[in-house]
Design goal:
Structural class of chain B: alpha+beta
Distance between the termini of chain A: 63 Å
Number of domains of chain A: 2
Helix content of chain B: 25-40%
Oligomer: heterodimer
Strand order of the largest sheet of chain A: 2-4-3-8-7
Order of helices and strands of chain A: EEHEEEEHEEHHHH
Largest interface: A-B, 41 and 37 residues
Number of domains of chain B: 1
Number of helices of chain B: 10
Helix content of chain A: 25-40%
Shape of chain B: globular
Distance between the termini of chain B: 28 Å
Number of strands of chain A: 8
Radius of gyration of chain B: 18 Å
Chain lengths: 262, 230
Amino acid sequence: MGHWFDDLPDVTGGQPLDAGLLQRWPDRAMDGRLHHLRFCPVVAAELYQLARFLPVTVVEQPEGVMVMADLRPDILRRPAFAEDGSFQRNYRPLVTRLLPFAVTRAGGMIRLRDDCIQPEPDRPAELQRQISQMLAAQAAGVRMLTEAADLLLSEGLLQRQDDGAEWRPLSADLAEEARRAAGNLPARPGSFLALRLLAVLEFSHLHRQEHRPAQSDAESLSRLSGRNEALRRQTFLLQDDQLDFSQLQPASGGLARSAPAD
Amino acid sequence: MYGDFENWQAATASALRIYDPFAYRATVFERLVPVVPSEALSLAERWPVLWCRNAAGDPDLVVVRGLSASAEMPDARTQSRTSLPLLLQAFPFRFRDGLRGGEIGLDRSAPMKERDAGSYIVNERGVLLPGAELKLHALERWGAEIELRDQLTAAVFRHGLVEPVQLPDDLATRHGLPDLFTVIAQPEDALIFGAMAREHWQVVGQFLAAQRLSLYTMARLVALAGREAA
């Protein structure tokens, strides 16, 4: 798989940011093309908020894995973009707001090479400084999550998803292994962030089509509830309508009064 | 949430029936339900998971299902059984000593409305019936984490890693809500994890993330409580 930004039409790779590339840039250069993105990187500061709107997952990039928001319409329960390309969530990932400036897995800052020619006004120095500060914050946030994902991967807390490029938390039948692996993490801040990230990956699964609301937690219990259903099907006059005698003609006053109200 | 306790012998000897959780008053009206750490992630989709100060002044880990004490909990009748807090799934089964575990018995409370025929607890040979087994399983899951729940609460409060949850205007006083607390956004993680056995690290990390995720659901509860008052 290529870089996440290769999905943007007319974008041909990125180049390391320098002062020259920061002098001018087009307004909202990529906004009309964002709906082509399949993934976009997540920054540590937005991890929880983003997970309320989109699945967060771990995706391989040419240099290694990155923590990404999943934007693919065939995966999402509700598409992230409308037909006209407008974004359909109340929260927009930070990374999409500074394009064509972006950050790499290792925390480097780049500018995407764009073949689409647009007017690029010169920007005041103050604005350039702000952009580069925001970009630096993004780079730090991406690097934190990258390290957390690398740790989860090396400790065997993620497993490869069928299509190959995506890694997800271990399935439920490996819960015991996951618990053991989590307990073996080195006692340092990066590990604790990694455990939080793991929980966020699990939580945000609910935005995927394949998500089914949780059933009982043990296989034995699904068997039990099957028995329970059988029990319920036995008729003990359980339905309200079977107790509804209102259609009966009152033969005598006494019978009518004893009928249930509804 | 609980009334009088009835011991197991007395409850199973009589032909007492139990019903699905939605038949009981607690499921529809109980706004603060005690939870254990591993429940937090599944509850976080809908409700804030916070600490409240209980009557004794001690912090109690609960899920906040609504702000108003008198109104029905939002969605209380439309959700699935498995998305309820464990203690409500288990109801009317309970521990004699409320949240401290130990002897299991029943709460002596009648269902509000018998939605179906219910089920006996044991069959004529004394074997647990499936409905009772599901409920007991939920109670046992809760019971298994009592110690972890206490350790986690002690760790974050001892080190001052919590902050109060502020509600807008006078919502908290108007609805008679106790003080609510959450772990701060960037706690000194080593203090929390250091106080926990390594086998619990995964659940603790999961809980800390779940609580942050759950805070976003408070806005909906506030909006619902506001609309009700208007």
